[in-house]
Structure formats: C-alpha cells, structure tokens
Specification:
Order of helices and strands: EHHEEEEEHEEEEE
CATH architecture of the largest domain: Beta Barrel
Helix content: 10-25%
Largest sheet: 5 strands, mixed
Number of domains: 2
Number of helices: 3
Shape: globular
Strand order of the largest sheet: 6-8-7-11-10
Structural class: alpha+beta
CATH topology of the largest domain: Barwin-like endoglucanases
Radius of gyration: 23 Å
Strand content: 15-25%
C-alpha cells in the first residue's frame, strides 16, 4: 500500500445532500486562524492543486499531477519503492535499521496505556460504518480493555464508565476485546478530547498511541448529567499511563457510573 497509488471515487455517499469536501473545511479553517501570506489556502481547496504540490515535494510522485485528469490510467506505482532484489539506496546497499528506546511500563497493575485507533469501516477521520467488524463493536463510544482488567475492577461488557485525562473527559461503554492486559483502546476522533497536544520531540508524532497526562491530576468525582433517572453514584478508580518520553508516571481517571 506504500508504493501504489490509485484514484478513488469515494464510494456511495453515507448521507444525502451536498457537503463540503475535507480539503475545503481544512483550507477554510486555515484561512481564518493562520497568518496571511505563507500559503494561498483558497487554491488548496482544489484537489488538483494539492496533487501538484505533492508532486513537487514527494520523490516518485510526478504521475499524481495528472491522475485526476485521466492520466496514468487512474493509478501508478511510485518509483524507487519496489525492490525485486535486496539492494537499497544506502552507502552499502543494505537496509539500515534503527533501535528505538521503548518506555518501560511501571510494574503496577493500575498502570495502563491508552491508544486511539480507527475501526474497520473508517478511513482516517471519515466513519463510513458504525459497526467495527474487526473487534465486534456496534458503537463507537467504547473503551476496549482486556478481560482480566475488567474482572479485576468488577466491570462487565457494556458497563458505562467515565474516562478522564488532563485535556478532557467522556463517557464510554466497556468493550472486552482481545488486547494485552494493562492496555486500553478507544476510537478517534471521538476520543480526541482525551489526547493532549504534545508531540514526540524527534518524530513530531502526536501521542495518539501512548497518551501522556499531566502529573498530579486532580480527581474530580462529580456526577455526569444524564437524561434518564437520578444522577449516578460514582465509584472511582485510577488508571495511570507511562507517557511516550518515559517521564514519571502520569494519571488518568476512569470512574464507573452506577445508578443510585
């Protein structure tokens, strides 16, 4: 998938009516909040204009300039990406491997890592189907956890919990899936409210797969307003996650919601 480009028609629309394209939305936001003069954001409302800029920057992408005009047969292979022999464009002709230090998870059963993921019926932030065939979920406001972790906390499939981080909080239903113990997963963009704006200092990658939270996070045990029945009674427990940069453990709060 990383050496072949094919033009997509987007498939059947999920909703009726006319909608703004994603590039139109992004360009409109950029025009309103970014300083003038660096880019002509009005031009970037055009997919063809974007492809022209990609062709100038990414090696081997020259053919993308005409792909939307019927050129390249609607698809092309990126030059220099396919290797039929184990010879690479390096000084010695061999692949160069790099060792990446991995943070050590604290030896504490209450320490978790949370990653945000997409579902089977989702492409980037566009959700085509609510059901996730890969994991058996029929809703998206879920926090996926291992069966052992759920049992240790007295949680069952479908129990409602509140997940808090330093940036926000949201309610979710417990989904017991085949995931390594002491790890949690939630869908984005719904769970973006839990993701801080920090990035890795070297790769500049956001912390979507190992969310770092601020130390000494205050535990706010207030009830959540719900349109049904009396306010829930909260029984709190704390989940901590080791951040990407292996700084001291930071805390996230997950509280179980129980009817009074």
């Amino acid at each position: 998938m990383f050496n072949f480009v094919r033009l997509s028609d987007g498939g059947p629309p999920a909703l009726e009516g006319d909608f703004r394209s994603e590039v139109d939305v992004v360009a409109g936001i950029a025009e309103r909040i970014l300083p003038e003069g660096r880019f002509d954001w009005s031009r970037f409302r055009s997919h063809e204009a974007l492809r022209e800029e990609i062709a100038k920057i990414v090696p081997g992408y020259d053919a993308i300039t005409n792909i939307g005009k019927g050129g390249a047969g609607g698809e092309f292979q990126i030059e220099g990406r396919t290797f039929h022999a184990p010879s690479f464009n390096t000084p010695n002709g061999r692949a160069q491997f790099a060792v990446t230090p991995v943070p050590t998870l604290v030896d504490d059963e209450d320490v978790f890592r949370l990653m945000t993921i997409r579902s089977e019926g989702q492409f980037n932030t566009v959700v085509y189907e609510v059901e996730d065939l890969y994991r058996g979920n029929t809703r998206r406001d879920v926090v996926m956890m291992a069966e052992a972790d759920a049992k240790r906390r007295g949680l069952n499939e479908g129990d409602r919990v509140r997940v808090r981080s330093e940036t926000g909080e949201m309610e979710a239903s417990v989904a017991i899936v085949d995931i390594r113990a002491r790890n949690l997963a939630m869908y984005y963009p719904e769970a973006n409210i839990l993701v801080p704006g920090r990035i890795d200092p070297r790769s500049k990658t956001p912390a979507f797969k190992s969310i770092a939270d601020s130390p000494n996070l205050p535990l706010r045990h207030s009830a959540v307003d719900r349109p049904w029945g009396p306010p829930p009674r909260i029984r709190p427990f704390t989940i901590s996650r080791e951040p990407v940069n292996a700084q001291p453990t930071r805390k996230t709060v997950v509280t179980r919601l129980e009817s009074a």
